[in-house]
Each structure stands twice: as structure tokens, then as C-alpha cells.
Specification:
The complex is a heterodimer of chains A (505) and B (173). Chain A has 505 residues and is α+β, with helices and mostly antiparallel strands. Chain A has helices spanning 20-33, 49-53, 72-82, 98-106, 116-123, 125-134, 150-160, 186-201, 258-274, 306-313, 317-325, 405-418, 428-434, 438-441, 449-453, 465-478, 485-490, 492-504; strands at residues 13-16, 36-41, 56-59, 86-88, 110-111, 164-168, 178-180, 206-210, 216-224, 230-242, 245-251, 279-287, 293-299, 342-349, 351-352, 358-359, 362-363, 366-368, 375-379, 386-387, 394-402, 420-422. Chain B has 173 residues and is mostly beta strands. Chain B is built from one helix and 16 strands.
Chain lengths: 505, 173
Amino acid sequence: MGTSPSERPPFRRVLIANRGEIAVRVIRACRELGVESVAVYSDADRAALHVRLADHAYHIGPAAPAESYLVIDKVLDVARRSGAEAVHPGYGFLSERAVFARACTDAGLTFIGPSPDAIEAMGDKVAARERMIAAGVPVVPGTAEPIESDAEVERVAKAVGFPIMLKAAAGGGGKGMRLVTETGALSAALRGARSEAKAAFGDDRVYVEKAILRPRHVEVQVLGDTHGEVIHLYERECSIQRRHQKVIEESPSLAIDAATREAMGRVAVQAARAVDYVGAGTIEFLVDQDRQFYFLEMNTRIQVEHAITEAVTGIDLVRAQIEIAAGRPLPVRQEDVHQRGWAIECRIYAEDPHNGFLPAPGRIEALQVPTGIGIRDDSGVYEGFEVSTFYDPMISKLIAWGSTRDEAIARMRRALHEYVVVGPRANVDFHLWALQHPAFLAGDVDTGFIEREFTPSAIAAGGDLPLIGAAIHAILRTRTPATTGPAAAQRSPWVDAARREALRG
Amino acid sequence: MAESGRAQAFTAVVGAATRRIVVVPLGDDRYQVTLDDQAPLLVDGRRTGPLSYSLLIDGRAAEVHVLARGDDYTVASGGRAHCLKLLDERALRTRKRGAGDGDRELRAVMPGKVVAVLVEVGATVADGDGLLVIEAMKMENEIKATRAGTVTEIHVKPGQAVEAGELLAVVDD
């Protein structure tokens, strides 16, 4: 499986059109494959970790993504100047833009991902749904066509039966989405969904579907190669979400049994085949309380949470992406893919659980990352780095593996206990709360878990130790340092830090 | 590194609670710490980094990481973040005693764009009332009054970009 170190690298040089932890992740895969990496960076990212770790790095403009990481011409220009043969888009940014994939191909570059046609087919939710119905993939009952007229929305809503969900046709990330439980609330919800969709995507068409109450979000990882082979790498459960965004994921999922697992894997492969999928992709499903599963959407890129699949299957997904793009066959056959043990991911964000999980960026003054058995931390930051307001405030992805779910949970709790982020407010304590919640321990969670169960007071911190530590620090930070002797030289780094702090204070 | 010295007293504000803490540096990284009217503790507090301390208290080991900005302290320990105010005697004396506990001035905590202004100058607001909405990092954030009073100044308009620390509005008694 895979290449031996002596085998020829799949590419000579790969450009990574991204930043943060995923750029670092791709750079690492490149290095392991003997491929040179080319980083791109904005004004805000000159000192970012991905620039520090890459073999080559090129500036592509101001901090705002719309003027740097999202500008196709700038990325392609760097590819040309750097002599890159292929482009890895990471996730977010240009990763699911068919026009970018096409521009890469037109420029003679290999796009590390699916074909532009596949991205396009899955990118429009309405078109994707039709495609999936035709391929025999179960979908949530509702309309296949985007609806323009309000009267038609009402008619369909009644036909499908409340509760219903209104969704932006061009949507994503929860924007333009509304749950409607009764006829009376429909028109206000429709107005809200349309204006939000218009603002976010420039397209106010919505579609209507039956709402699945207390749904679980379970997704299946697929890999396809250029030789027409498609396999799945089993599921990830991503039900723990805030603001419709995942925050804790695990694999396997307790939401499904063996029979459902096999069926979902089969259907995911069917879905990927329907668009001749090449590379790593994810089929997202909603699973209801009766273990019925419904196609939600396909993400035509590597996912943030891919590492838990790597942990349980032992397959390096990013490496596989690069090898597949070079025309190599899949690294494994379906019958050789097995789930071994249990993996959990906690996304460590610079955000404040006491304040609606709002981003809380800032300079990382102290960072202590857990290590030890079963722990992986995929990070894009370091001590002294500024978590910028321009980008996603993720600090790192903490992944724990154990031979059983209980072991994985115990390791994650241990690792969170060791995790220190000082500067930006981080959500480490939120994760500690979630990982001891009876519903989580029982595996009885759904996408409404946080909204229903979490209150900031649940993570209120107390105890005398912080007070004692703060008071000792208060004494030392104001004390004038000794100016002579070897002892003074020794303690200079922290004295300097304390001084900096006192000045800023 | 700490030489012995005189006792220093602090008032700590933790949420709604106020606690008193007296520290006597004994030298050799040792401190006598008295919390409220509890028995004094002997604390071995070794600095392990610019913001980090290893504490040994009667054989119990703990690690704390402390960031201070003015009187505001954030202490990370055991995966939890603790926020508190620590006032020495001088700070206590100079601390303004106002009617409202919250801030008069509301400032932007991060750069962003003003999406909406929800109140007008002259409006009477309660603690927690939304004053304006700022979009930052692709999310809308409602800026709320942190004290009851009257809105006397509004410095921004919808659509305007704001920098971190920029004055947005003032709520007076």
C-alpha cells in the first residue's frame, strides 16, 4: 500500500492554495512523499506556520481573503512562477469552486481533487439532489426544484407536512436555513431565509424539505481514483455542532448499527460514482431516530475532520489525494478497509463559550499542546502567533484515538486537561464539559445538543489555585528585575515578557 | 528568584464574589498565602515560563498560566480558563466608584463592520440591551449595554468599518 520511500514522488512540486492547519497538513504529506511544497501567504500570514514549514512561499496580497487566497489569477501566477505541477486547494477558500479547478487544468496544472464537472454537479444543492435521486440515493422528502413563488412554497410545505426546513438553493454553513413548525410561521421564515440567502450567495431561491427532528449528522468518507474505482472509508459522526458548524466529531458513529453502516457505505459509493468522483470526498447524511438515512450534500474536498478517519482506518487521506491526482490507483481495496478502535476530534477554536461561541482572536501568549499516547494535534499556530480576525479562528484539531470509545474519551479528556492556550479565549473548557455530559457518554446526541444542553454557567471555573497563581504573578510582574549577575541573565526571557505585559496593561 | 519581602494584599473579584488574598514572599520561590480568613498556605511557586508557574501546595502539584492585562487576569489551569480582577490596595483606592458597575464606554473588541445601530442617542437602556450589531469574522455580534442608563453618544453608522478598541457608544447614568 502506498509508495516506498524509494519510489518516485508523484509530483515534483505542489502549490497549496490555502493557509492554517490544512496547509500545514498538506505540506507534511508532500514532504513525506518527497514532493516540494509551495505556500502562498497574505500580508497577515508572512510568519504563519505554513510559510515556515513550506519549501517555497510566495506573497499573494492583502490580508482580506477576497484580495489574496480567493484570487484565482494570483494563485495561478504563483503556480507558474514557482514551477508547481499541481495545486492542492485544502478546504474552504477555492476548494469547491469549479471555475478554479477548471482554470488549473486550463493552465496545465493538475488540480488535486475531483473534476470541475463533479464539483459543479454537487455544488448546486438542487442539482445534486436530482442527481442523487436518479442514482437511487435516499433524500429527504421535499422539492427538487428551487421555488420562486411564496404561494408555491406554502403549497409544497403543506404537501410535505410540517415541520419543514427552508434551505437556500446555493447555501452552505447554515445560511438561509429556517425550521418552520407550523403554517403560521411560514411567511416570516421564508422572508428571512430569502434575504439571508440573497445576502450570502446572491441567490434567494429556496427549497423546501421535510424537517428531520433531532437528526444526527453522519457522513461517509469516499475515495475515487482516475481508473474508475470508488471505495468508502466508513463514517464520521458530526452531530455536535454550534452555529450549524461541527465542533466535535467521532468515528465510528453510535447512531448506526452494522447493517446501516454497510448500507450507508454502499450508497455513498453509489453517490460518488454518479458524478465520476475522483479524489477524497464526503457524503453527508442526516440520520433520523429510526436510523433512516438521507443524503444531505456532498463535500467535494478534504474535510476538516478527516483525521479521525485516518486514525481508525490507518489510511493517510491527504497522501491518497496527491497520489490519486498523479494517476495512481487507490491505496487499498474496499475489503481491506477496516475500522479499528475509536477516534474523537475536538476543534480547538479561539472563541468564547460564555459569549455565544463568538470568535475571540488575539495573540497567543502561551501555548502548551498535549502529546502522549493516542494524541494528535493538527495545528496552524504557535506561541507568539496572532490569531487573525481575517480567517477562521481555529487554533488546532485535537484528535484522540483509543481501542474503545471509553479509552478515546479518557485520552481526549486527559489531553484537554493538558491543553494551554493563553491570549485568545479558547473553547477547551467547553470540550471538557461536552466530554463528560451524560448524553455524550451515552452517544445520545443530535445536532441540537449544544443549543439544548449548554449553558455558560456549566463551565464556570472556580477554586483557589487560579487566585494563588494570579497573586504570585502580580507580585513578580511588578518587581524590578536585578540588573547584574548571571541570575539576571538567566531570567531575562520571562522578565522581558512580564515587562512587555506590564507596559501593555 | 523571588526574594523575601513584605506582605502584599489583594482584593480579587471573581464573577460576583470578592475575595481577599495576602501573599508574603518568603524567598526561594516560596510564599505564604492567606485566602480570606482561611489558615495560611505555604506555596512553592516556581516560574516555568514567562506566564507559567508550577505550584506545590502541601505536596499537591498544579500548573497555572497567567496573563495579566492591567487588573484583568486570565488564568489557564487544567484545561479551564479563569477570569478575575486582581486589585492591590492602590488600585482599590483609585478605582472609580460609580453607580453602574458596567462600562460607560462601549468599544469594539475586534475589527469589523457596523451592520446596524439599534438605539438612538437619548434612549434609556437596561443592562444587557442590544445597542448595535457588528459583523466580524463573518459573524454578526450584538454589542450590549453592560449597565443601565441613557445612551449619550453614538459614534458609528451602519456600513462603517471599525477598528479594535474604537469607541462605539457611551451609556451614562
